[in-house]
Amino acid sequence: MANKIVVYSPGRANLIGEHTDYNDGYILPFAIKKYVKIEIESSERFKIFSKQVKKGIEFEAPLKTNSWADYVIGMIVKLREHGYKVEPFNMILDSELPMGAGLSSSAALEVGVGYAISQLMGYEIEREELAKIAHECEVDFVGVRCGIMDQYAVALSKEDHALFIDTMTREYKYVPLYLDSAKLYLINSGIKHELGNSEYNRRRHECELALESMKKSSFRDVTMDDVDRLSDPVLRKRALHVITENERVLKTLSALESDNLLLVGRYLYESHESLRDNYEVSCEEIDFLIEELRKYPDVLGARIVGAGFGGSVIVLARDNFEEIFKKVAEMYTMKYGITPSLMNVETSSGVFRVDSI
User: Fold this and answer.
1) Which residue among 55, 60, 135, 216 is least enclosed by CB atoms within 10 Å?
2) Residue 86 in 3-state DSSP?
3) Total domains present in the chain
4) Do residues 155 and 236 share a domain?
């Protein structure tokens, strides 16, 4: 067995296709060069230490703690359920992914932990299977009923590409993400409203109720006529977001293939409007940022990214965006007393191991 192993697991951004991954929809995420670093070595007992929360935990049996450690403990449980050997280890976690920014730090942790354990124990797990096990950890063990997007993006991404995934069939393909004169940026709003998880699960439930009311088993069978016939206005809005967002993903795919970045930007704005008005997962602070960004012609498009209720905004803009950001950030800080931060987005490959120095 190896002595000490170091694994880097990337965060993810999502170009478009928000809240469609648990609704049999289409998504277009990619991994980013911001990582959770995981160091692992064999030990007599399980020991996990997080440099972010400055806390550690030791145990012999992997039991739920209702804390950050559950992302690691859940992976031990799920790997064993799938027949993989997991012997005690000492693990140190370090992350440059901001918590609550909508960049999927939890999936980066789950996939990274699973990959690190497999490397330490000396076996290979197919990346798709690793993503599925990590997804089970999040849903069954941690208790967030998320779709597959985050875990797939962290496990399977390829540099300079987005990952087009059909979440109904789990089929995926790589889409070149060469943006010529434009770049992608992420603005961390510095806001994370606490209702995130409970509202997220509520949205899932509302989508299920909408399908039930339309007598459909999947949103892929739903037409605009079906949506129009929904009598409940809330369910109608939720269903409207899902089917129009799926259309936007397919249109964005075509626009990328023909290098039409103006169209890509328009679809980002349209996606945000639907997330704000139909899915109702935005918030005042994020809406303010996007309305300000819209005033600048060099900003081609922007939308809230992630589960919602705060987090980050993904922006497609021309090269001089840093200057625009300074102006918008100043207004935002004056209004809300919060300093947003800007991240220049670089695409990454999926989870990988480096040789310890």
Assistant:
1) 60
2) coil
3) 2
4) no
